[in-house]
Amino acid sequence: MGVTLVFGAAGQLGQCLQQLGRERQLTNLIFLPRTQANILDEAALQSVFTQYRPTYLINCAAYTAVDKAEEEADTARRVNRDGVENLARLCGEFGTTLLHVSTDFVFAGTGNQPLIETDEAAPISVYGRTKLEGEQVIPAHTGQYFILRTSWLYSRYAGNFVKTMLRLGQERSEVRVIWDQLGTPTYALDLADCLLHIIDSGSTAYGLYHYSNEGVASWYDLAVAVFELSGLPTRVVPIRTAEYPTSATRPTFSVLDKTNVKAALGLAIPHWRESLKACLRQLA
Ligand SMILES: NC(=O)C1=CN([C@@H]2O[C@H](COP(=O)(O)OP(=O)(O)OC[C@H]3O[C@@H](n4cnc5c(N)ncnc54)[C@H](OP(=O)(O)O)[C@@H]3O)[C@@H](O)[C@H]2O)C=CC1
Ligand SMILES: Cc1cn([C@H]2C[C@H](O)[C@@H](COP(=O)(O)OP(=O)(O)O[C@H]3O[C@@H](C)C(=O)[C@@H](O)[C@H]3O)O2)c(=O)[nH]c1=O
């Protein structure tokens, strides 16, 4: 069986893949943190590809600080666009299948219907724009790719909204959370499982797909569920976006339609509340 290289292995999704790799004893998964393989370092990438000649590459490396990206557009673009192009070029040269992850923030989010892959992407933040550019550079270099757009990732690893709520819940009796932005929380471990499923299945249904957990929620709903399921008495006050100013504008409605990924890969996707329970069990 060929080798799968994982870039950005120290991040949230990368650590979920490491967890599944350990649990399933997948010896052909090679994890490369930024310190070993910076996706902006073309010479280092060339030598990693020459050494491993990977069958698959999973790219978890990204610039994900949504607000900070507004002031660091060049840095965000280098990682989210140029870094992805470096990987795609080498995947093309080495016949490697690229599994790349993108975001619901490529959408303006002004509608009210679940978004399909062919809906117009019109990002309203630097992060969203640079992630869209990353999606768009891939097909020029290789046709062997899966791009999975996902949303609102959380897990026991790295920083994420669920962990922020648990921390705030310990510190305060009340938190104020936006209820007028709708999307779908996604357990990063479920996404990691989906990525490994693509590899296991040997699927050649290349292309762009939407993947999140099932259901719809506001950030307020998610916070309420976190406190309810973890038995914390914290009160959640619903507020509007205007009452929580941030540098980056976020989509109002970015629920992803998963019809295509389920059909192409034969996946059963858990509801976000079920996956949240599983994550909170891991965190406890
Ligand atoms: N988090 C979320 O809510 C969502 C994430 N996504 C997408 O999912 C993917 C995974 O996200 P997630 O795991 O949460 O992100 P994280 O920010 O947790 O992890 C990203 C990793 O990429 C690394 N990295 C940054 N720059 C480089 C570089 N030049 N070379 C190599 N590695 C680098 C970071 O290293 P360091 O820690 O040193 O900066 C970090 O370890 C990303 O593509 C993201 O855009 C999509 C929707 C939602
Ligand atoms: C901490 C906090 C956040 N919020 C709001 C702000 C924002 O609209 C929303 C989420 O805030 P965060 O900053 O935690 O999450 P954010 O960084 O916006 O999350 C996004 O990250 C990128 C990487 C993606 O790709 C997206 O899919 C999405 O997951 O919750 C509150 O209303 N109250 C709070 O106390």
TrEMBL record:
One of its GO terms (molecular function) is dTDP-4-dehydrorhamnose reductase activity. GO terms for cellular component: cytosol. The keyword RNA-binding does not apply. InterPro entries: dTDP_dehydrorham_reduct, NAD(P)-bd_dom_sf, RmlD-like-bd. Its EC number is 1.1.1.133. PANTHER family: DTDP-4-DEHYDRORHAMNOSE REDUCTASE (PTHR10491), METHIONINE ADENOSYLTRANSFERASE 2 SUBUNIT BETA (PTHR10491:SF4). Catalyzes the reduction of dTDP-6-deoxy-L-lyxo-4-hexulose to yield dTDP-L-rhamnose. This is dTDP-4-dehydrorhamnose reductase. It comes from Hymenobacter lutimineralis.
